[in-house]
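Appendix C: a fully annotated inverse folding record. The material below is reproduced so that readers can follow the format used throughout the book. The structure is listed first as tokens, followed by the designed sequence.
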């Protein structure tokens, strides 16, 4: 394949990343101003006829309790993003940071941790999250989602740092007598400087999927703090004749996950 054939790929990837981060920026603005942008407060019922179709008064229609779906979608997006950011921080700290440190441990200890986390990484993250919530409480769903996503983050980071440790540059640094602690600090700085944005975007996509799914199944957010997954679940009895009650929250969720995937460069967004 010629250079002409491969040249557009990096440009396209950079463009997609720009689109993704721009979308996440707009979502951040919408979340920050949700109370101002939403026509009605969160949970306000009886604002119109039950299950009214989209109209000029209610652009997204109303739900089973006469709530304005546009307002509820904005508030639900705010709850979803807030919970996902907390879960992402857990996944990055427990998975990414711990994985980088483990790659610098003595070979036996690092290999043991890598094997153990590899076992957990082989289990679907959703099942791990449901198990963690079942052993604790729904209140800890963001923590459970972050911990469920952490094994894959650990494996990715561990393998990347371990490969760097075996590089010629690292061998030369050790031969020059540079302390292991100094090398660890340097690697952590380089690791998070060069990959943090991509890792954060991947983690955001992963935990958003997990949190929305557990909420849809009834193990996540509880009223009055309704996230998008719970909104979609609440509208399941009217899917066939009042599609808007679930379609617009689902669309907001798709846009959030898609923007995070694009920001990560479409690098396996379900795997932080």
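Designed amino acids, in order:
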């Amino acid at each position: 394949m010629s250079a002409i054939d491969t040249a557009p790929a990096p440009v396209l990837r950079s463009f997609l990343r720009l689109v993704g981060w721009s979308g996440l920026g707009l979502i951040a603005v919408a979340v920050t101003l949700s109370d101002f942008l939403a026509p009605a407060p969160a949970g306000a019922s009886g604002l119109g006829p039950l299950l009214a179709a989209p109209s000029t008064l209610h652009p997204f229609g109303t739900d089973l309790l006469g709530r304005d779906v546009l307002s509820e979608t904005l508030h639900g997006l705010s709850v979803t993003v807030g919970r996902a950011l907390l879960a992402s921080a857990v996944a990055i700290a427990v998975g990414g940071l711990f994985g980088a440190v483990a790659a610098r441990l003595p070979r036996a200890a690092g290999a043991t941790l890598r094997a153990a986390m590899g076992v957990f990484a082989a289990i679907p993250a959703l099942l791990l999250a449901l198990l963690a919530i079942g052993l604790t409480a729904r209140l800890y769903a963001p923590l459970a989602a972050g911990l469920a996503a952490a094994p894959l983050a650990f494996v990715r980071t561990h393998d990347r740092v371990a490969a760097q440790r075996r590089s010629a540059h690292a061998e030369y640094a050790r031969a020059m007598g540079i302390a292991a602690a100094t090398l660890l600090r340097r690697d952590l700085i380089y690791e998070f400087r060069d990959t943090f944005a991509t890792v954060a975007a991947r983690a955001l996509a992963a935990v958003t999927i997990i949190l929305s799914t557990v909420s849809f199944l009834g193990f996540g957010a509880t009223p009055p703090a309704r996230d998008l997954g719970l909104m979609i679940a609440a509208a399941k009895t009217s899917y066939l004749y009042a599609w808007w009650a679930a379609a617009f929250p689902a669309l907001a969720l798709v846009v959030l996950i898609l923007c995070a995937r694009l920001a990560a460069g479409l690098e396996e967004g379900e795997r932080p």
